[in-house]
Amino acid sequence: MIWVIGGTKDSRDFIESFPFKGELIVTTATEYGGKLLEGVKDIKVFCQRLDLNGMSEFIERNSVKKIVDLSHPYAEEVSKTAIECSKLKNIEYVRFERENLSSEEGVIEFSDIDTMIKYLESLSENILVTLGSNNIHRFEHMKNKSNIYFRILPKWEMVKKAEEFGILPKNIIAMQGPFSKELNVAMMRQLNIKYIVSKKGGDTGGEREKIESAKEIGAISILLSRPNVEYPIAFSNIDELIQYII
User: Fold this and answer.
1) Which residue segments constitute the domains of the chain, with CATH numbers given?
2) What 3-state class would DSSP assign to 122?
3) Packing angle, helices 207-217 and 181-190, rounded to 10
4) Between 20 and 30 A from 116 (CA), which of 25, 62, 169, 199?
């Protein structure tokens, strides 16, 4: 079997294009990731988080001969653990990594989130944060938290988490993308946003639309760099990835 580490739109695109779906077995870390694959026929999907031991057992149980990692660009621990496991089991690991967009004017980039948080705390104008709910706890004690708006998925547990860390309902935007440039512009104008904070998620993650919308209204884009992971072999094109595997 070929083990696909999924949970992203990239993984769905790969699975839908792969000609031998019966050879695929898919895991996602969350139920939401599993729902992204609803409607795709002839594949087995398991929604579960796996540590190194869990990955090893999964490989043995399902006779996995190859790992294809299409997890999120910021799922650093998942990728590192899968690489380690592939070495232990002596099987091939192949990564799909979204292509990085070229540098733009009006963009500030940080290599680590702690430095980014310190910078954001120095700002007095309104900020739109689109880093996802996993990083919300980092904003709990910020003195300018009332000027920060958080766009997260419209899931009860994520909204609850935001409120638990002291974020007021008026500062929570619970919406699911993709977000067009026009929608971003309208939202940012409505909230008088001067800075938009996001990850370098590439085109799939809406990075281009965020940067372009900020430019249109004269706001500044603040980006968190991707984790630095040494992939044994990686592709940024789905078709080339499939051809390599076949």
Assistant:
1) 2-99+228-245 (3.40.50.720), 107-224 (3.40.50.620)
2) coil
3) 50
4) 169
